[in-house]
Amino acid sequence: MPPGRGGTIPEVYQRRTRPRQRNRAGRDAARAPAGGRRRPRRGRSAAPRLCVAAQTAYAAGMTSASLVWLFDVDGTLLLTQGAGRRAIAAALLERYGVDDDLTHIPMAGRTDPLIVNDALRHHGLDPDGEGDRAALWAAVVAHMRRLMAPPVGGLLPGVERALDAVAAESGHVCALLTGNVRPMAEIKLGAFGIWERFAFGAFGDEAPDRDALAIVAARRAMERCGVPPHRCVVVGDTEHDIACARAAGAKAVAVATGGRTRAQLEPYAPDLLLDDLRDTNALVEWARALPA
Question: What is the mean pLDDT of residues 198-223?
């Protein structure tokens, strides 16, 4: 199941994403052999499908959960070579005639709405009403979809192995905590085949800043999985991810795969600091040792 059913995404996003979901379902049904079971794709492990099934069961309350992993997207799971920045810049040019590459606006560890608001303020723009703002976001999403077809960038080292290792642990749930608005997260993760590996998500338009968003994610973990904040783990690549974990009462795992080095992350004292997600043994053993 796709993440984030509790979000507040404008209807214009939903209209754009629903046809793609139906088409994917249709393709899946067409590929299914007699008897209703799908054959694994050639050359690919069945582990991702098992992961999807497990996360779906947790999200539906069918299985007892004990630990919720809240993964950041950009710089933690994947890189898109600045496609998100370019999508926002293209939308501003299309809607307002503003030609700005936005390289002067900080993006790491921040939410999409904060980034767009900074760009609007920088140029003295104030979208008139919800309809105009929704049209701007629809343009951002449309440009992002264009820029990611075919995909640019890729998954970071060890990501698929880490997701497999987490999903293989009894009671562990993979979820999202990202500054991306939901359709941007879906485009990015879907481009590399991992969108459906997360049971739910908390997205950039659901809170005013990342600390508040982490509180939303922790509350959702309790509501959906019965897991309290101290049994949630935020995995991210910036000091903002560590800070938001603290704000929510969660644990923090930092990876030096985005815009910060290991030396830059260390002073913020994450509960676990890794070069990247390839060391799945260290990740899983650390999680197993967490107090109940």
Answer: 97
